[in-house]
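Morning, I've got a small favour to ask if you have a moment. I owe you a coffee for this, so here goes:

…
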Amino acid sequence: MTISIKWFPPSWFQIKTNDKIMYIDPAWMRTYFTKYPKKIEFSRWPDPIDGLPEELEQADAILLTHHHKDHCKSVTVNRLKDADTLVVAPKRCSNELGKDINVVAPGEEITFGDIKIKAVDAYNTEQGSSTRKVHHKGIGVGYLITLGGKTIYHAGDTDVIPEMIEFGDVDVALLPIGGTFTMDIQDAVEAAIAINPGIVIPMHYLKVDPQEFKNKVEARSDIKVVLLRIGEVYHLKR
């Protein structure tokens, strides 16, 4: 089995296997895709801002980490789901998505066929490098997703937190590095080293240079940092 991981900003990923398609934090924000040639715009303000970065397959599962509109947006979720799609999100997302979701809190697990989904903590800390402390413990989540013999960690919006050393074996970590609502580059380096995955893919950045993150991680560890352009795919092989 090959697992493909495709990135869209800020923290939107498509994870695709031979028989399953999953999205994490799909949220169409026009500002991220102004120069992306494949974008599809269905409506603009003052109507609901509705679009997709490109033609995308319908989801078997959609995971949302928290309720902020750049991570959880009903028009985008509705574009990608059908009647059989599993939608997993923390409770606060029900205000945006409605009640027909599978609500999770940190520590809870869901089994979906041969995929195991575990919600984990994601939050800002007083001492963390995030400059805006808007993510409070217990409200949002990250996810540990185990499929095809591999574990992928999507951190959500978080600072470095002590729970990260308890995750066990992680093959791919998707880590925010932006420094405003999440940890900055230096703290994300510390998070990567604490988690010690085989591969890290940075996300949730606007004004910082992901190459700096890559250089710092690879100078201090054997972790491979993969920088994805918008819509680019990384193939993770068993």
Summary: The mean pLDDT is 96. The CA atoms of residues 145 and 181 lie 23 Å apart. The first strand starts at residue 2 and ends at 8.
